[in-house]
Description:
- This protein is α+β, with helices and mostly antiparallel strands and 208 residues long.
- 31% of the residues lie in helices and 19% in strands.
- The protein has helices at residues 21-33, 57-64, 95-102, 166-183, 190-197, 199-207, and strands at 3-4, 10-14, 38-41, 47-50, 80-81, 116-119, 133-138, 141-146, 158-164.
- It is globular and about 55 Å long.
Amino acid sequence: MAIKQRDGSYAVVLDVSITTPQELKKIAEALEKHGAKLVKFSESQRMVVVGIDPERLDELCREAGVKLAPAVGSVVRSVKFCPGKALCTLGLQDTIGIAERLKKFEGLKLPSKMKIAVSGCPNSCTEPAFRDIGLMGTKDGFTVFVGGSAGMKPRIGWKLAEKIKPDEAVKLVERIIEFYKGNAKKGQRLGDFIESIGFEEFKNAIRE
């Protein structure tokens, strides 16, 4: 989806968070060919390109070898993750692997937008406690937070579970999304939904 800018040009968000020099060169060549004005990286670690003709998006993505990221609307946004133990000396869990597994939820339509973050250690570089769903790596697995948010109404998320293994974490995220999708009101973020029914009721419903 192209997003109109103040100057009348359009921006698109590409699903590019981890890449190689060779892939980056291919992307750059495609962007240059299509007249991109500038490139920046979003808060969710995706490539934002300004100055793209929305009528040529499919052509651009095909030539660059990339996909568009879900950037707007009441959907699950791109999963934010740090390098984790694959690259970072402080990493305790495999963030890249679990983020890839969570990508299946990206773009799913929900009552409101949903942001998911995964960090490989308690330093929490991706701020999981301030996302709708956050997974924080520890030596014993993942700690799962729900209902966090930043912006105009900042909130630290509730701690839903601790010492959760990757397979369990993916299943838990799926249960959270399904329960939220089936019960929240239109426009109600996950944190507001949890507040409306009470955290204990939410927690018990997710466990069932």
